[in-house]
Recover the amino acids of this structure.
C-alpha cells in the first residue's frame, strides 16, 4: 500500500499530492475534514476530464458526490446485514456501474470508442446477462447506492428462517456458490480471471479491459467522501472499507496494457 498512499499533513494536503495523482503515482488520498480532499477531487472531475483524455488518454468516471450526511442512515439497516463477501459484490457492482454509465455509454466518448463496437457489444451483453440494468443518466450518490443494493439483492438473494424458541436464525444464500463459480470459469478456460472478484463480475471486467485495450485508453474510477457512506467507526464501516481498500484499491486496476 505504501506506493498507493499519498503523503499528507495533518491539516492540509500538500500541493505535491496533485502532482502524484496526476502522474498516477497514488491511489488513495487520506486526510482530515477540510484538508482539501474534495477540492482536489472536484478539480479532476470538473476541470480536467478533457485534458486528461486528450493528453493522457485517461477517462475519469466518478460517483456524483453531494454532501449528504444522512446517506448511511438511509441504507444503514441493509449495510449492517452485509458480510465482507457481500461487500466484495457490492463494490464490484458499484464500480462496474460507473464504468458502464460514464465510459462505455458516454455520448462524449463516441468518437474515442468508434473502433470498439464489437468489444462494447460484448461488454453490454455481459452486463445485462448478470442482471444489471442501466442507471439512466447521472444520479445522486444516494440513488446509486440504492441501485447497487437492489442489484446485489437480485444477484444474491437470501432466505432467512428463525428457529422456534431461542434456536437462533438460519440463513441460506440462493446466489452463486463455489461450484457455480467454478463451472463459469471452466466454461471459458481462456478468459482472464481475477480471484478477487465474483465470477460473473469478472467476465464484465474482462470485457471492459478489452474495450480499453482496443481504444488505447485508461479508466480512472474516482470516489470521494467515503467517510460519509457508513456510520463512523462502526463494524459495518470497517468491513466495507477494508474490502474496498484491500480487495480493490490494490488489485483492481482496469486499464489498457
Amino acid at each position: 500500500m505504501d506506493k498507493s498512499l499519498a503523503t499528507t499533513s495533518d491539516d492540509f494536503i500538500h500541493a505535491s499530492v496533485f502532482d502524484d495523482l496526476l502522474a498516477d503515482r497514488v491511489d488513495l488520498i487520506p486526510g482530515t475534514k477540510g484538508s482539501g480532499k474534495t477540492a482536489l477531487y472536484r478539480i479532476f472531475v470538473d476541470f480536467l476530464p478533457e485534458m486528461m483524455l486528450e493528453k493522457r488518454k485517461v477517462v475519469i468516471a466518478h460517483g456524483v458526490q453531494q454532501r449528504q450526511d444522512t446517506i448511511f442512515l438511509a441504507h444503514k439497516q441493509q449495510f449492517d446485514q452485509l458480510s465482507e463477501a457481500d461487500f466484495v459484490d457490492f463494490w464490484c457492482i458499484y464500480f462496474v456501474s460507473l464504468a458502464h454509465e460514464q465510459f462505455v455509454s458516454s455520448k462524449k466518448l463516441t468518437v474515442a470508442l468508434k473502433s470498439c463496437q464489437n468489444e462494447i457489444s460484448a461488454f453490454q451483453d455481459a452486463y445485462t446477462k448478470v442482471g444489471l440494468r442501466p442507471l439512466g443518466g447521472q444520479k445522486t450518490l444516494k440513488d446509486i447506492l440504492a441501485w447497487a443494493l437492489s442489484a446485489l439483492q437480485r444477484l444474491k438473494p437470501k432466505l432467512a428462517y428463525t428457529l422456534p424458541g431461542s434456536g437462533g436464525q438460519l440463513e441460506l444464500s440462493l446466489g452463486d456458490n463455489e461450484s457455480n463459480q467454478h463451472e463459469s470459469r471452466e466454461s471459458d478456460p481462456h478468459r482472464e480471471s481475477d480471484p478477487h472478484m465474483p465470477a460473473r463480475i469478472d467476465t464484465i471486467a474482462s470485457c471492459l479491459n478489452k474495450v480499453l485495450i482496443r481504444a488505447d485508453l485508461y479508466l480512472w474510477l474516482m470516489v470521494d467522501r467515503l467517510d460519509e457512506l457508513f456510520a463512523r467507526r462502526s463494524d459495518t464501516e470497517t468491513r466495507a472499507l477494508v474490502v474496498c481498500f484491500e480487495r480493490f484499491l490494490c488489485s483492481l486496476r482496469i486499464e489498457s496494457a
